[in-house]
Write a structure and sequence with these properties.
Order of helices and strands: HHHH
Helix content: 55-70%
Number of helices: 4
Shape: elongated
Largest sheet: none
Length: 160
């Protein structure tokens, strides 16, 4: 079994940029997919509130999942500040989400008319969810053994 190469400044820099791109594209795509499903629900049920709820909850769940996966990956690859690195990616993903341009990204539209206040509220929800996912992933990565996901740490027994 081969062990991964230790992180050097060059591989860390490349890995950091890759993580930012992955978070940017993953979160923007999650928002877009959630929007399509929400529009489908709203169109088929003729219930705009149900569509907004489905869109918002699904986007937040996907964002939490993406943050968790990439947070674990960042921690395992030796990124020193995974929340900062992936937070930049989440912010860029929010800005790339087409519904952000219409002030209809997440759930704030349910309590106020679409506008700047809606964008600020949705951005707050988006970033809190992304940071929560990254923290969960980074914390979970610290409990893993040297062999990867779910592998216990090596032991000093002759049979281990």
């Amino acid at each position: 079994m081969s062990h991964p190469e230790p992180a050097t400044p060059l591989t860390r820099r490349t890995g950091t940029a890759g993580l930012v791109v992955q978070m940017t594209l993953g979160s923007a795509l999650a928002g877009f997919v959630a929007a399509l499903l929400g529009a489908s629900v709203a169109g088929s049920t003729l219930n705009l509130t149900a569509g907004i709820l489905i869109r918002g909850v699904l986007a937040l769940m996907l964002l939490l999942l993406i943050g968790r996966i990439l947070g674990r990956r960042a921690k395992q690859s030796g990124v020193s500040r995974p929340i900062l690195v992936l937070g930049v990616g989440a912010l860029l993903g929010f800005l790339l989400d087409p519904l952000t341009w219409q002030a209809r990204t997440l759930l704030t539209q349910l309590v106020t008319e679409p506008g700047m206040l809606t964008v600020i509220g949705d951005l707050g929800l988006w970033m809190l969810t992304a940071v929560a996912g990254v923290r969960l992933g980074a914390r979970g990565a610290g409990r893993l053994g040297a062999g990867g996901a779910g592998t216990p740490p090596p032991t000093d027994t002759p049979y281990g």
